[in-house]
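Hello,

I think I submitted the NAP job twice by accident. Can you confirm which output corresponds to this input? Input:
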Amino acid sequence: MTDIRNQLFINGTWTEAQSSLRSALFNPATGEQITTVPMGGREDAQSAIEAAYDAFPAWSQTAAEERSVYLRRIYDLIVANADHLAEIMTLEQGKPVKEAKGEVLWGADFFLWYSEEAKRINGEIIPSSRTTQRILVQRYPIGVVAAITPWNFPSSMITRKLAPALAAGCTVVVKPAPETPLSAIALFDIFAQAGLPQGVANLVIGNAQEIGQEFLDNEKVRKISFTGSTAVGKYLLEQSAKQVKKVSLELGGHAPFIVFADADLDAAAEGLIYNKFQNNGQTCICANRIFVHESIQAEFMDKFIAKLKDITIGNGMRDVNVGPLIHERALAKVEDQVQDALDKGAKLISGGVRLTEGEYATGCYYAPTVLTGVTRDMHIFQEETFGPVAPFITFSNEEEVIRMANDTPYGLASYFYTRDLATTMRVADKLEYGMIGINESALGYVQAPFGGVKQSGTGREGGQHGVDDFLEYKYLNINF
Ligand code: NAP
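Support: Only one job matched these inputs. Its output is below.
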């Protein structure tokens, strides 16, 4: 893939970083070096912010219809280039190319949805206290947005921020994850083809600490939108207090997946396979603790294991279900969690090993793993896993399982399967999560507000709520 451009995109121009340092990029499926990318730093971030700041007055005053047309054009271009974008993603991130294409198209849908929503950023007229008064509420774009994105969804985590930000009339600077810069570059190539005015969207690849610090210190940045780990999110939130910048955070999760005794077990097993092994378990909304009622544990496990046997693992460029993990650190974390669980008495039902033979020899592969007898003292019960491990815990009643499900500082996604309406309503009320899948294990829909509570973040992405995060209110009290 020598045709991949690897530069920064600032003020409508592809450009080298100030520093001549470059960082090597590796294919997680093979361990081979793909290319090198520039190491942008503080000065590059500053130039990008400057460009976004200069572009803001014109872009924010563009007619909504006009912004809508740009967004729609970007959607069309992403769809037309979906195969190419998917291959780039698989190369650097590892997920199977079919899954990568699904992400690219889902990511494109944010541009389609917000191309429509751009035209519906309505204000309000509020009944006034006097007959000679009108109270008007108008909505304004916040200003320059700095977006920081992770490697697990290299395309859609950018589009889920940019589409609503641009629809609102904000201008943006994006810093993608160092593991997946090429997907970001490929998207910016599309923004350029779409003719987005210069400075409206800028891309800075490189040193996270330096770029992040410039985002935090530069008064021209009015909003930080971050998707990534809770630790980094907390740091950004704390540092943003100095200038009272607006902050949206989509952070880690630790999803419970509950199977009640009356559930449709085939649907639950199918849902769990999809949810747990999507992106090889490297998803913030992946099931991390699987609670199964004791009366159906054996039957459910048989169904789950039968489906697990059909999973194929390998280089995502081939027709496989699951690719490699992103890098050695991710693999080591999975190994540590599994070993800790086994040391503390969990039972290994399947997997539990690194795959090292044949085509797996140079990549980061770990066998899909099932553990039973998982208890609260194990790291896997306490921490996000981010890998292909399914830890099972049995429960005997509703109260007990809700207590265990909520026993975490995270509150992103949760799931439960039941056929009973009263159970559905009671459990949905009591789960402390921003999103709940009920007899359903997929949650990412463009029209729905994606996001978490507790230490999983603040703000929502997607749907009409997603654009709110990029808008301010201005109230006019008119006396006449
Ligand atoms: P991460 O280590 O927090 O990194 C995320 C991004 O932040 C990367 O671009 C990273 O760059 C950057 N970063 C790190 N330190 C920074 C700093 N001081 N200033 C500015 N930027 C900084 O997370 P990750 O490992 O890439 O992603 C996995 C995590 O994301 C998981 O916890 C997952 O649950 C979460 N996630 C959440 C959602 C959601 O919607 N809630 C979606 C996807 C992922 P460097 O790598 O160069 O440091």
